[in-house]
Amino acid sequence: MWSYMVVATTALIGTALGTAIPRAESTCTEPVVRKEWRELTTSEKAEYIRAAVCLRKLPQPSTPRLTRHPLRGQLLPWHRWYLQLHENLLRTECGFTGTQPYWDWSLDADALNTYHSPVFDPVTGFGGDGRRTGSNVPGFERCVVDGPFANTNLTLAMGWPDMNFSDMANMLEGLPHAQIHSIIFGDMGPATSPNEPLFFLHHANVDRAWAKWQGRNSTRLADYTGFQDSLKTITASIDDTMPVMALADNEPMVKDYMDIQAGPLCYTYSSL
Ligand SMILES: [Cu+2]
Description:
Blueprint: E1 6-8, E2 32-34, H1 42-56, E3 66-68, H2 75-94, H3 105-110, H4 165-184, H5 198-214, H6 218-221, E4 267-269
Parallel strand pairs: 2-4
Antiparallel strand pairs: 1-3
Helix pairs in contact: 1-2, 2-5, 4-5
Bound molecules: copper (II) ion.
Copper (II) ion is lined by residues 5, 177, 181, 203.
């Protein structure tokens, strides 16, 4: 399942490169609120899709740069950084006026109606099941694929009372995170997953789950353990830097992406 966690830098990189992210000295007193997709008004949905399409049309490097996500333990802080970069680019490059939405797939799974989730609405969402292309290459059979998951139960237990970070991250990454990638598949499956617009709504929800587990608990806000590599030879540390793969000038540090309301981050979720 980990093979899906490769990252297409082409999805984000255009002429726009992130700049060095300083640790903010100011405190986060008015965090922006990331809302669930169905909490958005029709015009807010249209504005997000407009900006997402705009970002996609920015000039791309001539050679696609596909890079395997190198450090297993960093999935959560790395995607937190990546999401913030994406949200910043929507604003700076495409004049986006909203905040990054998330897709709470557990709502659809609980209703046993994921197939008709509002995110797949062909008018106000990200499109439906698509058409057959005639190709038999896995992931390319349809031009838009959402997959047969009406009966898949992806409900995410949000309690995790006694888990440390490593246990929580393994559970979150292995099941709901990877499941959504492989159920949608198409662009969402392989190295091109950030090309799929739902990638960012999905990862915002994964990020929300981590933020919910953290709460405002100082121990959990600093809990970062595990290994950097799948062979479990390199211990992960909160002082580790994370690879930017040409998306920014400086490598962000894990410790700056632990708290969504400190340092370079200042946001919250409509439901935590
Ligand atoms: Cu992912």
